[in-house]
Description:
With 279 residues, the protein is of the alpha/beta class. The chain folds into two domains: 1-52, no CATH class; 55-278. Helix content is 22%, strand content 28%. The protein is built from seven helices and 15 strands. The protein has a nine-stranded parallel sheet with strand order 1-2-3-5-7-9-11-13-15, with helices on one face. The chain has a three-stranded parallel sheet with strand order 4-6-8. Strands 10-12-14 form a three-stranded parallel sheet. Helix 4 packs parallel to helix 5.
Amino acid sequence: MSNRGASHRSGEDRISSLPDHLLCQILSNLPTKNAVTTSILSTRWRNIWLSTPILDIDINDVTTFVTFASRFLDFSKDSCLHKLKLSFGREDVDMCTIKLWIEDAFKRKIQHLEVDSRVDEMIDMQPLTFYLSETLVSLRLHFVLLHRFVFVSLPYLKVMHLEDNIYNDGNTLENLISSCPVLEDLTVVRSVDETTVKVLRVRSQSLNSLKLVLDSSKCWYNDDSNDWEVIIDAPRLGYLSLKDDQSVSFLISNLGSSAKVDINVSFNVSDIWEVEDWF
């Protein structure tokens, strides 16, 4: 008891005596910016944060960010990266550099990727390593450009949230969804503009939760054509949320009787005849 009390009074730093892998685990539970501040504690802590498997950054100061992220990714190129989250809203962000970081993350067997872009220039998700990842488990993308490749394979992807992205052609999104054999949670948020895919097909044998949003109220673009459709074929679906004020056709097949459904759709009825016109 006395020895324990003496250690406490002497201010012994027991945390710093822990092995590196435990310190990295502790830091990985902190926001990245807080983990970085531990580098000033002592020489023992100077480079510990560089070995954490998570990088979560909201870009404010471009110069500082580039230096910081590059140092992190260059420190241990052979180590695995568990999660990469990039959020930015500055127009002076170098997209080429960010694409290189994302490609590097896939080379390091990333499991969770989140890209939140709030700038006019889109990130071009072109590296083949992205479409053939054998480690990716969750994917969240906002305002990026996705390409269609002849062969796409994401065998472990379970969660995919896609918001206001641009797809290379009408089949890109459908092909991406169908290339995820264990996908369980899918969210697709679309805006109404000239680049939006008008026919959305969701076909999945594994999907459990599906949320689709197509909201024209916040868009400047007006399209009154009858080409907007939603087609869903997901026999294991347990939850469906559908918010859509643009599509004119909805085809939902193989929906289980126990599925929970939340549907909020509106149709343009200006051209529908009055009931008495039929008699």
